[in-house]
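Quick one, T. Sequence first:
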Amino acid sequence: MQNPIFSVSEFNEMLNFHLAQLGEVVVEGEISRIDVSRGQWLFITIKDEYAAVDVFGVAFQLSGWRALEEGMKVHVYGVASIHQRSGKFSIRAERIVPAGEGAMKIAFERLRSQLEKEGIFDISRKRETPRFPQHIGLVTAKGSQAYNDFIKVLKHRMGGMHIYFSAVSVQGVDAVDAICAALVELNKRDLDVIIVCRGGGSMEDLAAFNDEKVVRAIFASRAPVMTGVGHEGDVTLADMVADVRAS
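Structure tokens:
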């Protein structure tokens, strides 16, 4: 039986069809090259000891991309494909996340410095919260210790308040988008304050609260935001931008 003969374009189309069946992939590697084209497209190459792969994405859609640097180990979340005309293999990134506590600390400091220059953490822009708020938005995981502690404290200290609860993932791949969406929805209400909280954990566990998208969502909030993230010694970028950090 004779093997089928493909044109080049047909062959590339077939490869893309099969690659699409993989869905989202997560690839770990060390950044060996970073390039930003016209301030819009981000191109990087990641490698391990034996191989390398090119990665690209829309820069402004990739939270925290400015904190990336050569030599940093990252996890790339994206979809693999073959460029139809050139036949070049690459991954279109949806997220690029520092991997390991060392890389995360470097990314944290670089992003903190960048946001600080923008004035996002300025004390002058922080708002006071009412002493006795009546309409409170709550963003945390349903049934979590943070949720139970929050409800317990409110019932003990004050009554008559209305709580608008938005259940979210507080860690993992869905956490950032879930927290941002919750803040947007709660800001459609006339709230006295929005409280964002979760229990303690490692730097990786708290990664969503060091994400640029979450920081900017808190910054953009119409209602004052109070955070209670991690243990007392844990300080996240979300805490830095919040109007009040709960102790």
